[in-house]
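User: Some background: our group keeps a shared notebook of sequences we're curious about, and every so often someone picks one and asks for a predicted structure to add to the entry. Today it's my turn. The entry only has the sequence so far, pasted here. Could you supply the structure so I can complete it?
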Amino acid sequence: MTGITVRTVQALKPGETIWDAGHREAVRGFGVRRQRGHPTYVVKYRVFGRQRFFTIGPHGSPWTPANARKEAKRLLGLVADGKDPADERAQAWLRATDTLRRIGDKYLKQAKQKLRPRTYSEIERYLLTHWKPLHSVSAFHIRRRHVAARLTEIATDRGPVTAARARAALSAMFNWAIREGLDIPANPVVGTSRQAALKSRDRVLTDVELAEIWSACRDDDYGRMTKLLMLTAQRRDEVGSMQWLEIDHEKKSWKIPGARTKNHRDHILPLADAALALIEASPHYRDFVFGDGPRRRGDKQRGFSGWSKSKAALDARILEARRKVTNDAKPLPDWRLHDLRRTAATVMADRLGVLPHIVEAILNHVSGHRAGVAGVYNRARYEAEMREALKRWSDHVGSCRIS
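Assistant: Of course. Here's the predicted structure to add to the notebook entry:
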């Protein structure tokens, strides 16, 4: 037996193995063997009464006899502490493959069964879009500094509100992963700065911003829907799933079925001429006013999808229009489609003289004294007032675009 040196390693014949011995630095159980191709350093040990072999690596950089011997000492030290290096490597491999994207997909799979579709869609967008730069990183290797740096980028590019929501989505995912038994030391989101942002419920768009959004809308499904959201003050999913059978052209009204309203009550909304014109501009060959028709015979029709991508494209067009006026223009401050609903309600009440209960009726908010049969009666009685209020609002939006 002889010690492992560069010369003895290079002299190995196929199928031959030598073990370290014959000198003071020799490590019992450390060896090198040539089976196919290059010599490979190994270490053998016994754990739980069984002999195991562990491959250190092939001869060459970084594994020289000296470095491989040092690694063998470390591995045998783990064995002395009751650990199995093979198990340690397997766990390290699993940790490396448990990337942020992989864990995120697992989290979204269970979240989809528990959350409302709209809530799930938002969380999915934050995890898959805003945290994409970290998708390939092992969740076990993500540290607070990585999260903090990415949050700063999101806040700069998309605004503090988006950053705050992206932070909450990632934190919820890590908390779930820890509860599921993943051996993550701690939630890396904890301790990062919370974005000091204007609450989305307080965002009211200015007249200039309304005009910018309207002008940037194209004559397509998303453009018409965005304008319709502005003119009707209804919810995104209500407009996106609008069907032709819900539209009464003679009465110029839209009946939203309770299955799609937040309070589960049918909602009859008068339509201003501008709103009805947007609806009529959509193709009539499909059941849904907006969205995809069947691609093949027998396919199920559906309402509009692709909200996030379309919104990003709209924001890009708004920024492009701003830069034509000012070279150093900034994007429209963080806004959501839901802000159109809030803006309509605020302006109608504060500037157009619409009474609060009429605004509530337009928004389909139901409070105690309007619930039940009385609620249905009052909504019918307020139809004329609702129509007048929406006409005032439509005229106001028109004046914003002209001025």
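Suggested note for the entry: The two ends are 95 Å apart (CA to CA). The longest strand covers residues 50-58.
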